[in-house]
Amino acid sequence: MKADSAQGTLTLKKGAAGAGSEKTYAYVFAVTTAQCKLTTSGTAKFYRATDGTTDSAYLPDGDNVKTNQFLDKNDIGDIIITMDVESKRPKYANVMVRDPKPRSDGCFKFKDGSYEFYGK
């Protein structure tokens, strides 16, 4: 997936699901701009069905997709990935880092900075 407004990529790969186990996604998140250069990866586990308000996202093309949130306790902070869970290949994902650490190389300028990603 490509970032909407930054030079970044997000690669997601669905983890193996066992009986009664949580949904997981392996991810590689990379951003390269004049202000920051960051690549991190991990495995995000199912966190919750909504972002606290809604369980869907509207895409620029007018489509609406169902979303869930996945969490990884990463060395740059808690990474929360809100992603499309109804499409065969995700059309949307948002990567947010809660309380980003200095190791995030300035890529997250706000307490809860985030990047939007869109796929085809």
Describe the protein's architecture and organization:
The structure is a single chain. Helices cover 0% and strands 53% of the residues. It is mainly β and 120 residues long. The protein has one domain (2-118). Strands 1, 2, 3, 4, 5, 6, 7, 8 and 9 form a nine-stranded antiparallel β-sheet that branches. A hairpin with a 2-residue loop joins β6 (64-74) and β7 (77-84). The N and C termini lie close together (8 Å). The model has no long low-confidence stretch (mean pLDDT 85).
What's the SSE pattern? Answer: EEEEEEEEE
The largest sheet, given as strand count, sense and whether it forms a barrel, is: 9 strands, antiparallel
Uncertain stretches:
none
Could you state the oligomeric state of the chains shown?
single chain
Structural class: mainly beta
Task: Give the rounded overall mean pLDDT.
Answer: 85
Q: Rg to the nearest angstrom? A: 14 Å
Helix content: under 10%
Number of strands: 9
What is the first-to-last residue Cα distance?
Answer: 8 Å
Total number of helical segments? 0
Query: What number of structural domains do the residues give?
Result: 1
* Beta-strand fraction estimate: over 45%
- Morphology: globular
Indicate the topology.
Layout: E1 2-3, E2 8-14, E3 24-32, E4 37-48, E5 56-58, E6 64-74, E7 77-84, E8 92-98, E9 114-118
Antiparallel strand pairs: 1-9, 2-3, 3-4, 4-6, 5-6, 6-7, 7-8, 8-9
